[in-house]
Design brief:
By secondary structure, this protein is mostly helical. It is 73% helix and 0% strand. About 10% of the residues have low confidence. It comes from Streptomyces citrinus.
Amino acid sequence: MSTDVQRAAAPVRPAADRQPVRSEEAAPPAERHLGFALVLVLTGVAGLLASWVITLDKFKLLEDPNFTPGCSLNPVVSCGNIMKSAQAAAFGFPNPMLGLIAYGVVVAAGAGLLARARFPRWYWLTFQAGCLFGVGFVSWLQFQSLYRIHSLCLWCCLAWVATIVMFWSLAAFNVRNGFLPAGRAVRTFFTEFSWVPPTLHIGAVGMLILTRWWDFWTS
């Protein structure tokens, strides 16, 4: 009898309280997204480094038209040819100045995640739109470099790789967290094989570079 009274007197927990807490929800943001945050910081720093070096060399080239950048190694790998081209100032000012701002934002976002910051859905979708523009602009620069300017810039290549890795990592993050609508198969793919899209993308660009100057590389 007393047992029945005790059971009746015990408070009834709501159904939501009785549900087990998923480990993903219980883990702090910095722990859940540590890898992604580090990718943002590292790719942002790589892009900043490339933009900074190219900007400094551009200033030196403006001071001295005969200046030869240190990364001008041969007729193909020639940063000077890239810097002197019209495509190097696509928006009326040197492209790396845009990179100094954009990659700085990426580093700040990664640092924010490491500091356990939480950002709303609109933030990540805006970030994704910016990265989409970035990877599209990089693709245009790759085409111009290979088939119009006929030269490569090593620092530009570093920025290309950083932007590609950044774009696909952010896409995987947004899909996994439901910020971008996707089916279960797509979410599973970006959870288990998120490394595949950037690897294929970078590999495709590498193959284009290899075949574009095949005679030079093999001579």
